[in-house]
């Protein structure tokens, strides 16, 4: 008899085996964790249920399904696309090729936003909607506006807002940063594309091939979006309002200077859990 535990062990080994000859760059960094996700998905169960079922029988067709998922993973497809969701700040978000997978680092931006009260939020470059949906869930009296240049991304964000019961409190629209934004907000958040064009070649294939280029890079020095966002923010912040952006770890000084030059004050930098500069916050006087 094959048990769930046997299946998990087999899939873990399969994922950590030597790199694909046909695709030598693909390395599964967390084979055990991803094996759990894929097996649970094949069993139509949440991953945290697997341990309880470790000694139950695993039928052959379920193991075959899990193996198909694992072979897709070894060919480079992200586990989040195979299972159709990614966990972010304790909630599951639907993701596919239309959006960036929400990253754990972005939870640092959420923590910074939640550190002070807000009631009207603007999320620029909303992608999957992970940021705005989380903020609306965490602060049930708030309302928000979610903008993105990608209509495809907005469709995903709206789907996630519906799933999490906050769609009625968010307006969605296509906008090139502030171009279609009206009114003022006491909180503006953004995690814009910040990878420089010449850094793109170093990305893992699952990022380069499965996430939209527009979500990753500005095609230039990685700072284009910050120039636009910091220049536009003062007109769209209420007095005392905050601008909070995620950054790449080497961009803190440049982005902080842009905020100061735009007339914003109390500029501060927050580190992520790995101790890298990750979020810059500024206030309108
Ligand atoms: C790094 S992703 C962030 C997605 C999501 N906010 C998150 O944190 O997971 C950047 C997002 O900015 C959007 N974007 C890129 N250029 C833009 C522009 N000129 N105006 C508005 N949004 C843009 C992309 O479509 C993408 O959804």
TrEMBL record:
<feature type="domain" description="Release factor glutamine methyltransferase N-terminal">
    <location>
        <begin position="28"/>
        <end position="84"/>
    </location>
</feature>
<comment type="function">
    <text>Methylates the class 1 translation termination release factors RF1/PrfA and RF2/PrfB on the glutamine residue of the universally conserved GGQ motif.</text>
</comment>
<dbReference type="InterPro" id="IPR004556">
    <property type="entry name" value="HemK-like"/>
</dbReference>
<dbReference type="InterPro" id="IPR002052">
    <property type="entry name" value="DNA_methylase_N6_adenine_CS"/>
</dbReference>
<keyword id="KW-0489">Methyltransferase</keyword>
<feature type="binding site">
    <location>
        <position position="191"/>
    </location>
    <ligand>
        <name>S-adenosyl-L-methionine</name>
    </ligand>
</feature>
<dbReference type="InterPro" id="IPR029063">
    <property type="entry name" value="SAM-dependent_MTases_sf"/>
</dbReference>
<dbReference type="InterPro" id="IPR019874">
    <property type="entry name" value="RF_methyltr_PrmC"/>
</dbReference>
<feature type="binding site">
    <location>
        <position position="177"/>
    </location>
    <ligand>
        <name>S-adenosyl-L-methionine</name>
    </ligand>
</feature>
<dbReference type="InterPro" id="IPR040758">
    <property type="entry name" value="PrmC_N"/>
</dbReference>
<dbReference type="GO" id="GO:0032259">
    <property type="term" value="P:methylation"/>
</dbReference>
<feature type="domain" description="Methyltransferase small">
    <location>
        <begin position="109"/>
        <end position="198"/>
    </location>
</feature>
<protein>
    <recommendedName>
        <fullName>Release factor glutamine methyltransferase</fullName>
        <ecNumber>2.1.1.297</ecNumber>
    </recommendedName>
</protein>
<comment type="similarity">
    <text>Belongs to the protein N5-glutamine methyltransferase family. PrmC subfamily.</text>
</comment>
<dbReference type="Pfam" id="PF17827">
    <property type="entry name" value="PrmC_N"/>
</dbReference>
<keyword id="KW-0949">S-adenosyl-L-methionine</keyword>
<dbReference type="GO" id="GO:0102559">
    <property type="term" value="F:peptide chain release factor N(5)-glutamine methyltransferase activity"/>
</dbReference>
<dbReference type="InterPro" id="IPR050320">
    <property type="entry name" value="N5-glutamine_MTase"/>
</dbReference>
<dbReference type="InterPro" id="IPR007848">
    <property type="entry name" value="Small_mtfrase_dom"/>
</dbReference>
<keyword id="KW-0808">Transferase</keyword>
<feature type="binding site">
    <location>
        <begin position="191"/>
        <end position="194"/>
    </location>
    <ligand>
        <name>substrate</name>
    </ligand>
</feature>
<dbReference type="Pfam" id="PF05175">
    <property type="entry name" value="MTS"/>
</dbReference>
<feature type="binding site">
    <location>
        <begin position="125"/>
        <end position="129"/>
    </location>
    <ligand>
        <name>S-adenosyl-L-methionine</name>
    </ligand>
</feature>
<feature type="binding site">
    <location>
        <position position="148"/>
    </location>
    <ligand>
        <name>S-adenosyl-L-methionine</name>
    </ligand>
</feature>
């Amino acid at each position: 008899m094959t048990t769930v535990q046997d299946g998990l062990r087999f899939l873990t080994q399969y994922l950590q085996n030597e790199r694909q000859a046909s695709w030598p760059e693909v390395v599964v960094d967390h084979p055990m964790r991803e094996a759990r996700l894929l097996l649970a998905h094949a069993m139509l169960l949440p991953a945290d249920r697997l341990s309880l079922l470790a000694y139950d029988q695993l039928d052959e067709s379920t193991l075959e399904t899990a193996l198909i998922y694992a072979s897709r993973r070894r060919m480079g497809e992200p586990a989040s696309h195979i299972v159709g969701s990614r966990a972010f700040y304790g909630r599951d978000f639907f993701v596919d090729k239309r959006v960036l997978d929400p990253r754990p680092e972005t939870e640092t931006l959420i923590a910074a936003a939640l550190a002070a009260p807000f009631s009207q939020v603007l999320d620029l470059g909303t992608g999957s909607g992970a940021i705005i949906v989380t903020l609306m869930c965490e602060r049930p009296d708030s309302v928000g506006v979610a903008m993105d240049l990608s209509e495809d991304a907005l469709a995903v964000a709206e789907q996630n807002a519906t799933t999490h019961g906050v769609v009625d409190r968010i307006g969605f629209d296509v906008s090139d940063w502030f171009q279609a934004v009206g009114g003022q907000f006491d909180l503006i958040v953004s995690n814009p594309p910040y990878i420089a064009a010449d850094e793109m070649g170093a990305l893992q294939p699952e990022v380069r091939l499965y996430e939209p280029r527009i979500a990753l890079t500005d095609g230039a020095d990685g700072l284009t979006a910050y120039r636009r966002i910091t220049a536009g923010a003062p007109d769209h912040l209420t007095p005392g309002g905050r601008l909070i952006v995620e950054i790449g770890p080497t961009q803190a000084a440049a982005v902080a200077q842009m905020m100061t030059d735009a007339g914003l004050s109390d500029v501060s930098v927050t580190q992520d859990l790995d101790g890298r500069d990750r979020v810059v916050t500024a206030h309108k006087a």
